[in-house]
Amino acid sequence: MDAEIISVGTEIILGQITNTNARYLADQLRQLDIKSHWETTVDDHPSRIIEAIKQAEKRAHLIFICGGLGPTDDDVTMSSVASALDTELELDQDYWVKLQNDFAKRQVDLAPENIRQAYYLKGGEPLSNPVGLALGSMITQGHHTFVVLPGPPREFKAMVSNSLIPKLRQLTNGRTIMSANLHFVGYPESSLMDDINHLLEPYPEIIATSYVQPDETQVRLTVYDLAEEHAQKIINKASSVIIEKLGQYYFGTGENITLAGEVVQRLASHHYTISAAESLTGGLFQATLCSVPGASRVFEGGFVTYATQMKTQLLGIPSEFIEQYGVVSGEVAGAMAKMSAEKTGANIGIGFTGVAGPDTLDGHQVGEVWVGIQYDGQLIKRQLHLSQKMGREAIRRQSVQLGLLMLLHLLLHKTE
Amino acid sequence: MDAEIISVGTEIILGQITNTNARYLADQLRQLDIKSHWETTVDDHPSRIIEAIKQAEKRAHLIFICGGLGPTDDDVTMSSVASALDTELELDQDYWVKLQNDFAKRQVDLAPENIRQAYYLKGGEPLSNPVGLALGSMITQGHHTFVVLPGPPREFKAMVSNSLIPKLRQLTNGRTIMSANLHFVGYPESSLMDDINHLLEPYPEIIATSYVQPDETQVRLTVYDLAEEHAQKIINKASSVIIEKLGQYYFGTGENITLAGEVVQRLASHHYTISAAESLTGGLFQATLCSVPGASRVFEGGFVTYATQMKTQLLGIPSEFIEQYGVVSGEVAGAMAKMSAEKTGANIGIGFTGVAGPDTLDGHQVGEVWVGIQYDGQLIKRQLHLSQKMGREAIRRQSVQLGLLMLLHLLLHKTE
Question: Mind telling me which residue stretches traverse the membrane in this protein (chains A, B) (predicted)?
Answer without folding.
Answer: none
